[in-house]
Each structure stands twice: as C-alpha cells, then as structure tokens.
C-alpha cells in the first residue's frame, strides 16, 4: 500500500505542475481565447474603402472587414489595441455572398462579416493612409 500512495502523490504533483506551466504559457501569448487567434490584429482583416464608408467617416463611423467568427467585444478590443481608442459602439453585419454564373456553371462568392465602428467625437482613424 505504501508504494501505491507514493505513486499517486507523484502523479498528482506532476499534473498540477503541468497545469501551472500551461496557464503561464497562455497568459504570455496574449491570445484571444474564444477562437484561438494569436493577436488582436487577426480580428480586423482590412478597412473597407467605398463611397458609403467615406460618407460614414465624416460622422466618426469607420467600416472594417472582420473575421466571420468575431463578435462585438473582440472587434472593440482589437480597435482599442490597434488604434489606441475605445469605440463608442460596434455594429456587425453578416453579408451573404452573391450568386454568380461562370458560363454554364453556377457559383457563389464567400459570405463575409462587416463591422461599423463608431469612435468618440474629435478622434479620427487614418484608414486612407496607403491609398
């Protein structure tokens, strides 16, 4: 019986040590736990540059293409981390892909997700920098 108790104690100790190492490792990565992205930059794919988006920019609203798995909280934290300002509100739209025809074959573009981010008065995001 003494040997079995020693074996159980050593396995319990190693299991708890493994868990502590894993917790420290995940805290250091600063990942988003909901769907395992490596950084906040992965949530926002790119800003959408269109006529409607430029009209919305005059009212402190900016439009971004975001990951399909992203939600409002993740988009808000990504904007805060990337641009250094906390958004007032985040509205998200799921856009269905258009149905197309390629000669005699039918096809469909992929579905995507759009986020309209409202920022505080007096602050701007320079999305037209590289255009």
Automatic annotation (TrEMBL):
Keyword Transmembrane annotated: no
A Gene Ontology molecular function term of the record: structural constituent of ribosome
Biological process per Gene Ontology, one example term: translation
InterPro entries (alphabetical): Nucleotide-bd_a/b_plait_sf (IPR012677), Ribosomal_uL23-like (IPR013025), Ribosomal_uL23/eL15/eS24_sf (IPR012678)
UniProt entry tagged with the keyword Acyltransferase: no
A matching Pfam family: Ribosomal_L23
Lineage: superkingdom: Bacteria
Gene Ontology CC terms, in alphabetical order: ribonucleoprotein complex; ribosome
Keywords annotated in UniProt: Ribonucleoprotein, Ribosomal protein, RNA-binding, rRNA-binding
Function: One of the early assembly proteins it binds 23S rRNA. One of the proteins that surrounds the polypeptide exit tunnel on the outside of the ribosome. Forms the main docking site for trigger factor binding to the ribosome.
Quaternary assembly: Part of the 50S ribosomal subunit. Contacts protein L29, and trigger factor when it is bound to the ribosome.
Family note: Belongs to the universal ribosomal protein uL23 family.
Protein name: Large ribosomal subunit protein uL23
Gene name linked to the record: rplW
